[in-house]
Each structure stands twice: as structure tokens, then as C-alpha cells.
Amino acid sequence: xxxxxxxxxxxxxxxxxxxxxxxxxxxxxxxxxxxxxxxxxxxxxxxxxxxxxxxxxxxxxxxxxxxxxxxxxxxxxxxxxxxxxxxxxxxxxxxxxxxxxxxxxxxxxxxxxxxxxxxxxxxxxxxxxxxxxxxxxxxxxxxxxxxxxxxxxxxxxxxxxxxxxxxxxxxxxxxxxxxxxxxxxxxxxxxxxxxxxxxxxxxxxxxxxxxxxxxxxxxxxxxxxxxxxxxxxxxxxxxxxxxxxxxxxxxxxxxxxxxxxxxxxxxxxxxxxxxxxxxxxxxxxxxxxxxxxxxxxxxxxxxxxxxxxxxxxxxxxxxxxxxxxxxxxxxxxxxxxxxxxxxxxxxxxxxxxxxxxxxxxxxxxxxxxxxxxxxxxxxxxxxxxxxxxxxxxxxxxxxxxxxxxxxxxxxxxxxxxxxxxxxxxxxxxxxxxxxxxxxxxxxxxxxxxxxxxxxxxxxxxxxxxxxxxxxxxxxxxxxxxxxxxxxxxxxxxxxxxxxxxxxxxxxxxxxxxxxxxxxxxxxxxxxxxxxxxxxxxxxxxxxxxxxx
Length: 548
Description:
six-stranded antiparallel beta sheet; 24 strands; elongated; GMP Synthetase, Chain A, domain 3; 11 helices; five-stranded antiparallel beta sheet; alpha+beta; 27% strand
């Protein structure tokens, strides 16, 4: 099919919720998909028809004249007084199902009838009436304000023939609007009907686009409004921010109830927030849950996001069960029991594939005098001793790098990531170093910075705690020091090992002595003027044992 040959009909006559058979367009999408439309004779099963008026208002009428109606036809229907103009949105057997759903089933005598398909004169009156709706609403608001009524007129809808107007209003208290009706009737010379609606109904009548980018649910498909409480937001761990939880109607968003039941079922598979996890190096508190992915994030601080570790809900339950039995895993990620990896069997392992190749005989070289030159076989070449000078050079290189290799006595090396938004002043970077052997140790503090760092240097407070193996007899030794780490020089160039985006700066801390079984705890905070310090990506700590 060539889409260039298709001719799209655009109808400019449709306005304020009406559509025509030419385009089938409607401002409101409150229509039901007629899945019985292609069944032959299905429209002859009943003469009931669903008709839609302005915005979300609908009604059900009888096709007493047996008119050949289809979806999108504009019809004139019975009203009190006169007639109204609406659009056919549903015909056939589904109309009865819709009436049961909306509790609109009445006796056949109470159902009003369809007069005719709208004529040009009917449409002319309809357009004139609709043109007065906005000015009528503005003037009626002023009249209500002059009378001192605590109410808000949100919308005005004229009947198709212009003989009646419906005023939709919002009020928190009961309002005596008898005097208001008299003044409105005298001002507009029509029959007045007052209808009270809620905030959600008003948003549905006006319409709009939600923060999700889609049309409002109350203006498209919602017909009944259930109560929404903040408990639905708490269940889903949504931040209780009033500006984000409120919809266009200034009430809690209806979509908070959509997935609340799923989150209630998912929470049963997660551990309680009051249960803390104990490992050999620290104690962890639940910080947040990701119910959709089944993940739990734990922090070493009860109120702040410090040293966050993310594990699965099954792993958290496993650690809780281990703590009940008096066991502590090595960390949240593993228990310290390393299973030997099983190497898959290779049937060709140890077999030389070149055994299938045919051996080629090498031709003997001839010298110009015609005598043969004897070549040494490969085995004899491999057994030849290396040249003495080359051997001495290799031994010298090995002796040169041997002291450097022997000096790598690092017993602890770890990096902590800083969140992307910046290093907050109240965020503490903590390192828990496990028990060490007796000896002298030195520490190096590494700061990885990017070009987003706004200063030439960073000042930090480093608190070092030596926790002895026997805590009951020996007190904890604590020392605090202030460190200033230069990041850039006076010309704005980094003073450290540069990568593509980051620079690593090393600061040597003082050396100290540890007894056997002592452990360390190091906490680092910055004391810069900014609360959120950008440009710091990681803080690292390296503990080395000094060999004497």
C-alpha cells in the first residue's frame, strides 16, 4: 500500500467534545472499544445508544426512529427543556454492559429518545451556545464573589439549543445558592442547573497533561475515583514530597494506587527494616529497598548513606540466619569460604594438534662451489648456551627490579566511591581494616579528583582508631590529624598521575606500631567551604607493613 495515495479528511466543524463521521475525532478519549462491531447484525440486538457531550459527560438514549447510527454521528437528543446535541460513541450490545457498569439501568420509560441526526440549523445554534460558555463562566464567578459565596465555578456547559446552562462548581461546605440562581437567570436569560463536583472531576473536565507526559487519567478512562492516602506512597518508598505527589487537581495522584498492591506482596519477600546485619568488619543497617529488582542497600550508619553495599534479598536473609546462629560472614558479599573452581575437562588437553601435519623435508643448501652445507638440527640449536654478555645483561636487570618487588608489603588496599552529586560535608568515608600481624606499618591516603574540582587543594580531617584485640584491658587509641592535599598548581595543571579524566594524589600518613590482632578504623571528612564538594570521585587507603 502506498501511503502517499491515502487522503486524510480533516473536519474543522468538530468542537468541544463533538465528532463527525468524516473524521471520527473527539477531544475526550472516554470511549469504549467496540469489539463486537464487525459481527453482522449486532446493532439490531438493542436500540440503546451511548451519546457523549462536552468533555466527560455521557448519556444513554433510545433510537426510537430506527436511525442508521454509527460511531461519530452527531445527533439531537431529548432534553428538559428542548433538545441537546451530542456524539454517538457506542452502539449495539455493549451499550447494555456499559449501563450496568455505570449503574445507569432504568426502566425503558425513563430513558430519553434520539430525535434525529443533527441538521445545519441545529449545529448553528450549538456553535452560538458554545461560544458564550467562557464569558458566562467569568461573569458568573464575579456574581458569586459579590454574593460572598465560598464556592468556585469551574466550568459552564450550554445545552445544544441554548435554552439551559449547567454550572459546575466546587465547594468545601454547603452553599445556599438560591440568590445566585436568580441573578444568573436574570443575567443570561436561560434555565440554570447547578452541579457540585470534586477536584478530580474538575481536572477531568478541563483536561491536561500529567508529569508522566500522558493525558490525565481522569480525562481519558477513569470513571470512578477511589481515595488515595499517603500510605500508598510509603509502601512504595516514594519520597513524601507534596509538590511531586500532588496532581493537577492539587490532590494525591490517582496513579499511586495502581501498583500499591504489588508492592505490598513484594515487601513480604524482604527483611524487616529494624533487623541489622553483622559481619566480621562492621555492622550494617538497612538504607533502602529496590522492590522491582529484589535488591537491598545497607549502610554502616543508621541515618546516613555511608559505605553503601547492595545485595539481594535472599542474601540478606541468609546473613540474618547466620547471625541468629552466632556466625558472622567475612563481608556482605561473601562468607569467606572460597570454593575451588572446577576446570572443565578438555579432551584435547595435552594433545599436540600438529601431529596430523606431514613432516616436510628441508632441502640442503649448496654453496657456489657445489659442496653441501651442513645445518644444525633444531634440538642442537636449542641446547646451545646463551651468549655470556646477554646473560649478564638479563641478570643485571633482574637484580635491579628485585628490591622494588620485595618492597610491596601491602596488607590492605581499598577505594571508596563518592556519589556523583558531590562529597557532602556530613558524609563520612570510613575504612574498617581487619586484624593485622605485629609490626610497624605506614599508610597512604589517595584522592582521585577530576577537573570539576573547584579549588587548588582539599583539606580533610582524618581520625585514626587502633582497636586492640583485647578490648577489655587495653583502651582504644584514637588520633586526629588535618591533611591538606594539593590537586592543582598555580597554572591549573594537575599535580599527580593524570589519566583521561581523573588525577590520583597520594599523601603519606605517619607510621605506627600494631600488636598482633589489632585492627584499624579510619574516618575521613572534608572541611571545605562548600557543603557539596564536586570533582572528588574516590578516596583510597593503602596500608603497608615496614619490613626491617
